[in-house]
Amino acid sequence: MQGLAGKNALITGASSGIGQAIAIRLATEGCNIAINYRKSPEGAEETEEIAMQKACGQVEECGVKSLLVQGDVSQEADIIEMVNAVVEQFGSLDILINNAGIQLECPSHEIPTLDFDNVLSVNLRGAFLCAREAIKHFLSRNRGIIINVSSVHEKIPRPFYASYSISKGGVENLTKTLALEYAERGIRVNAIAPGATITPINEAWVNDPQQKAVVESHIPMGRAGTAEEMAAAVAFLASEEAAYITGQTLFIDGGLTLYADFREAWS
Ligand code: NAD
Predict the structure, then answer these.
(1) Contact 232, 25 (CB under 8 A)
(2) What is the ipTM of this complex?
(3) How many angstroms separate the alpha carbon of residue 71 from the centre of ligand 1?
(4) What mean pLDDT value characterizes the chain?
(5) What is the strand order of the sheet 187-194 is part of?
(6) Residue of 11, 12, 15, 18 to test ligand 1 pocket, by largest number of atoms within 8 Å of CB
């Protein structure tokens, strides 16, 4: 896609799932990738290996660079260090992908405050702080791109997952607010909203055929999405082909947000 080759991208939570697929896709498009991980260097190394293999094939040095950056996005000091490390190693930062996320199932009246805070501090506060640090750098060059990995639950309420739903509702507003605040300064801010996607966060149902069938029965297209399908949309939004798009959330959900109950005519 136009305008991605040679760009420097930081992807949070890139040691698995959607973040891993985004890192691989961006490297394939010629981006240098900084792979953030919190706890799993093995996962980050796997991301790096696949990404470099896809980007370079048999060529030893094809010009695409990679970097592993450890950091917990709920920790401000880690974020500052991480963004500085990327700028130092790559020379600049062009693209931030706020992908790191966690979820927690609990009836709302029973959720411990610390657990609630933890989900918000990773999914929303973490995304904001990463954006803040990236924007400081973007402003020195009057250009930059942020893509937040939100969820269909920025729109669809999710009982028993209130902290998650609330965090993604916040990500929708974060996307719009930053897009408006920095539109004149060459900074674009968008989001993707994945529907049910086959990744480790959904291990409760992806490996259980019966549970998977139940989940997929609610999806108009009849199947869950793949991490690669999410990454394709991120690559588009990060590319020059999306140069006039800002403040938008692109839903990639097989029709999940189309009120599936209306598939059949109601008498
Ligand atoms: P995943 O569990 O594979 O990925 C989440 C990643 O975030 C992991 O690599 C994890 O290590 C990282 N992470 C968690 N806490 C972190 C922290 N404090 N600091 C740094 N990294 C941290 O699951 P996934 O499905 O790939 O999730 C990626 C994003 O996609 C999340 O934001 C999630 O909410 C969103 N999403 C997923 C789905 C889905 O169905 N899989 C649907 C909608 C949105």
Answers:
(1) yes
(2) 0.99
(3) 14
(4) 96
(5) 66-70, 32-37, 8-11, 95-98, 144-149, 187-194, 249-252
(6) 18
Res 198: pLDDT:
96
Q: Are 167 and 100 in contact (CB under 8 A)?
A: no
Tell me how crowded residue 219 is: count the other CB atoms within 10 A of its CB: 18
Choosing from 201, 202, 216, 230 the residue with most ligand 1 atoms within 8 A of its CB, the one to mutate for a pocket test is: 201
* Distance of CA 123 from the midpoint of ligand 1 (Å): 9
For 89-141, what is each residue's pLDDT tens digit? 999 999 999 999 999 999 999 999 999 999 999 999 999 999 999 999 999 99
Q: Helices 162-182 and 113-123: crossing angle, nearest 10°? A: 30
Domains of the chain plus CATH, in order, are: 8-252 (3.40.50.720)
Predicted confidence at residue 58, as pLDDT, reads 77
